[in-house]
Design goal:
heterodimer, A: alpha/beta, globular, B: 3 domains
Chain lengths: 207, 324
């Protein structure tokens, strides 16, 4: 790993910690370097950075985000940042008939990496997460040995609301829940709703 | 005593820190020995609390030392970081709205650095009015421009108050360190030490007295232990400690006692006010709530200083202006 990549990684996690505290609460599972799929609610562009900064270092190097290919490879810097620092898995947003959109994810999982996915597919700021897309189900079906960890990310929407560019320093948390599994013969919709509820259940009680 | 006076300023300050760290060492060893002996659960709970306070003391002393060691620039930066963390903690619990975003950016990235730049450059006249006058007017303007009329006054009051306590109040601590006193140059560390000592003794004595006196609390919904007598006892203890420490200050003995009285009384009142704020936000310690992450509870620690420092700074400065 080159010095520039290391320095960039340190700078990003330092800024994330300075702005948000990036505190990880491991309530349902210990931070072990097992192969996992973390699935979280999605409220802001910073969600991935927050999870990444909250992970211990040995987990960080093996955990990869999903990035939209057209946006994150558009400029040299974006491409370098996502490829070298975050080891992003690129997916195409345009559907072509001959290619499964999950293929890059499947490949990464075969490779032994962990993934962070946001199954809502888009950012929501209405409080409750939107219904989950089916990608999580297909991955769970194909990789029964990989732990599925629900994650609730709290407060990030206050740090950088939609449409703003400068973040405001506010403490945020990522709460990691207990691993869940696809039950044998479980219906897709039932499983996705169960996964969504597992994420919501981690939301801290608002006083 | 005469030999002490003969030493240079640097050596005197070094001696002060040597004595401080030595004292802290002794206390730590004593606590450690007691911890090893403690068996009962009740005792061990008390000890965890004691260890927490001890750690805070260590951190405080090291910070004090570092801020002295690093000179005006370093101490300004250090307290600037503290202000930042304290304000971050405050804003997290203040439940601001989306339309406050711009105001918060102003508070964190413009007001805070500017205030500390003013401290660092010793522009104490502008430093004194910058937040109470200019920022006070700028925040509501920015807020109104955001176009959200909902709870307008309340939101502005929250932000303004946060800035006043976490930035304005706390920035007076490095200002004290940098204050140039006629015939007392370079001894700002003693002044800050004096301030911390009187504020701390007021707090400790108040705590002890409220336990011992068991008076009816003044405001039971805010603090079950706060009573006027305990508060006065704390302030008087601060006056006494101030008078005892007169030899490290440029004051006469009654002046030191009076300034100690004021700073001590303000510090404990500051803690009391913070308790009201915490109750409003629904937490016991700042940041100990699982939902608000591992903030270290910094506001808890600096609250007395936030209230005592401005009063202390201005009374010292006013006193200095009277000097021929």
């Amino acid at each position: 790993m080159s010095i520039a990549v290391k320095a960039m990684g340190m700078a990003v996690s330092f800024v994330a910690r300075l702005i948000t505290g990036a505190q990880g609460h491991w309530t349902g599972c210990p931070p072990e370097a097992l192969q996992r799929i973390y699935f979280a609610n999605h409220q802001s562009h910073l969600d991935w950075v927050l999870i990444w900064a909250a992970l211990p270092n040995d987990l960080r190097v093996r955990t990869r985000p999903i990035a939209a290919r057209d946006y994150w490879t558009a400029s040299k810097f974006k491409h370098w940042l996502t490829r070298e620092v975050f080891h992003a898995v690129y997916v195409s947003r345009q559907r072509t008939d001959d290619q499964d959109p999950l293929e890059p994810l499947v490949e990464a999982l075969h490779h032994g990496d962990s993934l962070v996915i946001f199954p809502e597919g888009t950012r929501s700021n209405k409080g409750e997460p939107q219904p989950f897309k089916s990608g999580l189900y297909h991955l769970a079906e194909q990789f029964p040995g990989v732990q599925l960890i629900p994650v609730w990310i709290d407060n990030v929407q206050r740090v950088m609301p939609k449409g703003e560019v400068v973040p405001v320093p506010i403490l945020c948390t990522a709460t990691f829940g207990a691993p869940m599994q696809l039950e044998p013969g479980e219906d897709k919709r039932v499983f996705l709703e169960r996964a969504r509820e597992a994420v919501i259940a981690l939301r801290p009680l608002v006083t | 005593m005469d030999r002490l006076r003969a030493l240079g300023v640097e050596q005197q300050v070094a001696l002060l820190f040597l004595a401080l760290f030595g004292l802290l060492m002794l206390v730590s060893i004593a606590v450690l020995v007691r911890t090893l002996r403690a068996q009962h659960s009740e005792q061990s709970e008390q000890h965890t609390r004691m260890l927490r306070d001890l750690r805070a003391l260590w951190v405080g002393t090291v910070v004090f030392w570092l801020s002295w060691l690093s000179g005006p620039l370093g101490s300004t930066l250090l307290f600037g970081v503290f202000s930042f963390l304290a304000l971050r903690e405050f804003i997290t619990l203040a439940h601001t709205r989306r339309s406050d975003h711009r105001s918060l950016i102003l508070a964190f990235f413009v007001v805070l650095p500017l205030q500390y730049a003013l401290v660092g450059s010793r522009s104490f006249d502008l430093f004194t009015v910058f937040i109470p006058v200019y920022v006070f007017l700028a925040i509501p303007v920015l807020s109104a421009l955001a176009g959200d009329p909902e709870r307008f006054l309340e939101r502005n009051a929250k932000i303004q108050w946060g800035i006043t306590v976490c930035v304005f109040g706390l920035s007076h601590a490095p200002a004290t360190l940098l204050l140039d006193f006629p015939g007392y140059a370079g001894r700002g560390a003693f002044l800050l030490f004096f301030l911390v000592m009187v504020a701390a003794s007021a707090q400790i004595v108040q705590e002890l007295m409220s336990r011992w006196l068991r008076r009816r609390p003044v405001a039971r919904h805010i603090d079950r232990s706060f009573s006027y007598r305990a508060w006065m006892a704390g302030a008087l203890a601060a006056a006494l400690v101030g008078a005892l420490l007169v030899w490290i200050t440029p004051f006469r003995i009654w002046q030191a006692a009076l300034i100690g009285l004021g700073a001590g009384a303000c510090g404990t009142l500051g803690e009391f006010v913070m308790k009201a704020l915490k109750k409003d936000a629904g937490v016991r310690h700042w940041g100990n709530h699982a939902s608000v992450t591992g903030a270290v509870g910094l506001l808890d620690r600096v609250a007395p200083l936030c209230f005592a420092a401005p009063v202390f700074f201005h009374s010292v400065r006013w006193y200095a202006s009277l000097q021929p």
